[in-house]
Write a structure and sequence with these properties.
Helices cover 36% and strands 19% of the residues. By secondary structure, it is an alpha/beta fold. The longest helix has 22 residues.
Length: 203
């Protein structure tokens, strides 16, 4: 059984909901399973620290998760058209994996949530791809053969799965993590595509 790492940061829950939808798609493919991981928040207070184990949700990611995975799905809420600082902070510390080529040749995809329809989803997804390209990963998007991509009135892009949290839900993520059916369909399809790619590349 091969593990696909679903690594994300979520503040209010919508990016987590996307991660769960991607994980469902991964788990639907025989021979692979999703490994959900998150990152701790970054504090402006130098002395502040997070507990080693989160109070709820998946464990914090370790570099060994990157080394052991057969593929990677990377997710973050949008922060001014870019990924959130906690995820960037973790990625900035992956030089050993870059030097060893631990991720080179593995498939990857990205996903995000924004508080407005044109709130930087695409620029966030594209910027999240950059460190993965430096790691030598093979980037997957969502093809237009997924019919929901052409009809969605909410999230969903060819660059990756996304969620549009209505303007009355502050912080870039819906507090209840309410994905539309199209958003869930596209995220699940992307997870399954990532899993199939991981199997094909390892064949």
């Amino acid at each position: 059984m091969k593990d696909i790492l679903v690594l994300y940061y979520s503040r209010h829950g919508a990016t987590r909901e996307l991660a769960l939808a991607l994980a469902a798609g991964i788990d639907s493919v025989a021979g692979v399973q999703a490994r959900l991981r998150t990152v701790p928040a970054v504090s402006t207070v130098c002395e502040a620290s997070q507990p080693e184990i989160p109070d709820s949700g998946p464990p914090y990611v370790e570099n060994s998760d990157l080394e052991e995975c057969a593929g990677l799905a990377l997710g973050s809420p949008t922060r001014f058209g870019n990924m959130a600082a906690p995820l960037k902070y973790f990625l900035d510390g992956t030089s050993p994996q870059w030097l060893s080529g631990a991720l080179s040749g593995k498939p990857a995809c990205v996903f995000t949530a924004t508080g407005s329809l044109h709130g930087g989803q695409e620029s966030t997804l594209l910027s999240m791809m950059l460190p993965l390209l430096h790691h030598g990963m093979l980037i997957l998007g969502i093809p237009y053969s997924e019919s929901a991509l052409s009809t969605t009135q909410t999230g969903g892009t060819p660059y990756g799965a996304s969620h549009f949290a209505r303007a009355d839900r502050a912080g870039g993520e819906a507090r209840q993590g309410l994905l539309s059916q199209d958003e869930k369909t596209l995220a699940t399809a992307l997870g399954a595509r990532l899993a199939r790619a991981a199997l094909a590349l390892d064949a």
